[in-house]
Amino acid sequence: MDVFINAFGLIFDPYVLLVVILSGAFGLFMGAVPGLSATMATALLVPVTFFMEPVPALASIVTATAMAIFAGDLPGALLRIPGTPASAAYTNEAFAMTRKGQAELVLGTGLLSAVIGGLFGAVVLTFSAPVLAEFAIKFSSFEYFWLASLGLTCAAFVSSESAAKGLISLMIGLLIATVGIDGTTGFPRFTFGSVELLGGINFIPAMIGMFAMAEVFRSVTAIKPPPEVEQRTIGNIFAGLGKVLYRYKFNLLRGSTIGVLVGALPGAGSDIAAWIAYAVSKKFSKDPEKFGTGHVEGIVDAGSSNNAGLGGTWVPALVFGIPGDSITAIVIGVLYVKGMNPGPTVFLEHPELIYAVFVSFFLANILLLPLGLTAIKCAKQMLRVPREILMPVILMFCVVGTFAINNTVFGVGIMLVLGVISYFLEENGFPIAPAILGLVLGGLLEESFMTSMIKADGDLLAFFERPVSAVLGVITILIWLSPQLAKVWRKIRRATPLGGR
Amino acid sequence: MKVNDAISGIIFILFGFLVFYLTRDFPIMPGQRYGAGLFPNLIGFFMGVGGVALIVRGVKTRNGAPWATVMDWVSSPRHLSSFFLVIFVLIFYILISDHLGFIPTAFICLFVLLLWLRGPATWPSSVVISILATIVIQQFFGEFLRVPLPWGIVPIFGW
Known about the structure:
heterodimer; A: mainly alpha; globular; B: 2 domains; 66% helix
């Protein structure tokens, strides 16, 4: 209980509260403008949090992402463009409701289900993470190797329609992580004689390049102009809201549960949670035929699941140091920068910090109500900010943000090169999230692999000798083989009925 | 440039071989058969595996489509120039900012981009936005967060 009180003291400090409110406003704006996502908001926040103490740094990321995920609903409902990928699942539904003159109801439902889902996620995070951490404290390098492999495998398989593309993206990230002095042998790798590369490629310029620069390129080369907002001013969003939420109270619970569970899976985040929750909602609905015509039910499910998912993604990130999605991958990177190795030991060494994260989750989701309401009222103005002004300013912000990390323009060069590469990768259907996960986890993966190899004296069977590592290893390998297994399974099924006749 | 998956596959297989080539001189650990090159080689190997899978997929799904197509914006001189202008502005910043100082460099970068994206007629407001954005960023990072942004030709004066 003492740590909880300590954590409250850390969060309810005037400076931290100011940071939280400013990050909240920033997150709402980033989420509301199409093309600027929650991940990009986090990426742009990192250079600023670099100069903060760990508590305000983490609280600002928690708040900005919670706000951005909700704000993604705004352009979804008003322009039929999802503000963040997490709103994509129900954008058509939301816009159909706006068409029917129910803009207030859809935005109100989105806001309240986001708050409820977010709080649900916060509760699950607070109660499950410490328990899991006690279990995880017994892990050795073998378990960590398999956990990191499992997380990266899921990321590669989930994030794109083609597992091969996810795999290649992941390998690019891992390869970038090997640049610099090798931790085990002290040998400089892939430095090509550059002194700057000896220290490795810093993850902050790399991440800003991959998420923010690539988006700047996409924006300046967009041929189609963004559509205009048609909706008149927005009235009382609470009218009739109580009835809807009461009627779909079970959906709130179901959406939030799906959100937390999907979020906690390594590699899957809020966007996938929303798609699944929407699909489940339609499948079990009493009136599935109304879905797609402007029916509020799916929005309750999906709107709560994407915010609940945020809490879920922090569970593996805090407990094992294995990120659940690209946002928590960035968070892990921030923790390393702050000199804390994410994983169960943080719960012993800095418990107040972990509890401060929990408290900031509750605070952020409660703050979402007033700030979100303001954002709904200002939605029209926010959506009207011209892209041609925003993008040069964001570009300059990226430049200074990357410069600020090491005070050299070398980082700006890294950002530019990786920005161009990720732009072309994404245009060709390669997902970027696995690359950033690979970049962040590459060090841990290689270190735990090499340590395990040395411990086992090169005997690969040792990776399966401990019970937990054996289970994790088998699961990981099964996922690797799953496309082939599925093919074989289909062949058997096709063959059996014929053989039987 | 959008290319067929098979082309991407070939590129990544070649890249995997490049990794093997670059790691050929990496030292091995005393008493072991492997060393600093083991992990990068595994990465190169899996990249190649992914490449092979992409070639199979690309050839299977091609259906007579061209092997490579340029993106629609490449044929629009305006958008093509925007793409290269962003790169050019960043290279300009990397080369010049230390000598010229942050404030003039950032102003030039912002003004050039704004003028190009918004059209020459907007120059008065573009000047104002560039000045404002430069000052806000300089104050926020340079003063508030104490990032040593280069002063260059601008004499240091404490705002």
